[in-house]
Amino acid sequence: MHRVVAVANAKGGVGKTSLTAGLAGLVAHTGYRVLTVDADPQGNLCRDLGYPAGDGQSLALAIQNGFELAPLRQVRPNLDCVPGGAALFDIPATYISRMARGQTMTGLRDALLRIEPAPPHSGDYDLVLVDTPPGEPVIQELIFRAADYVIIPTRSDDASLDGLVMVAHRFATARANNERLTLLGVLLFGVRSGSTRLRERVRLALEDALEGVAPVFDTTIRYLESAAVDMRRHGLLPYELEQRHARERSERLARLRSRQPAAGRDDLLSRDAAGLAGDYVALAKEVLAAIATAEADHDATPANAEPARRPSRGPLPG
Question: Whole-model pTM above 0.90?
């Protein structure tokens, strides 16, 4: 069975799309079969992953009626994507209309459970990451009903923390209709490492909103504006940007050793993305470990007869 992870916050600009792309690309790069779902009508995930912008029609029909999803295959090795787009703007109105008639919209879960990776792969995806829109609470609610897990990224400003609290309340409400929904953790995005006071502030805000335990990931994603610009401009993910830096350093060294003239200035603004790429490696390990722990706890419950859904692929690179 697929593991469906929603990436959500009630505020935009907190790193949801960057996190979805960076995490999906890295996990796929290590051999896991990964699907991303862009549930944002603006379809911003296509820029980070470098696929053509879509109209969102396939996803809209899946949400409304459970129709089969039509993913773009092999955007990266082992990585497929369901594009978002403008058709998703119609979802809230359709949802309200159906609610008024006593109907529901639960088709997305069934559509996600039916979709499979393209040959030569078979079976289920190891991980499905859903990038949710910040300003569409109806779509967020429907994604939560279809998901197994939630990750909440946040920045340090008050508006982002307010958005965190709001989505935490939505998460708590969604559990009334989806008991399997589990909060994997909150991620501090675009902040300095070692932000102990901020981490404590986030934890307390979450505990107040959820009236209980509030997991906060140990890993933080650092702010590196030059790298962010490079990744968007060139369609690179963090680990790919670091690979490009390493290749260009090697080429410069080879030219110096052979006394060749210096090449023209490269078009990258950043010079070293190793730290940023390392943040994503650490986060991927932490996320997969949290999923494995949640599944082990789930399987240990006597009343639960569902087979184990533990990650089965190789380890992430250190």
Answer: no
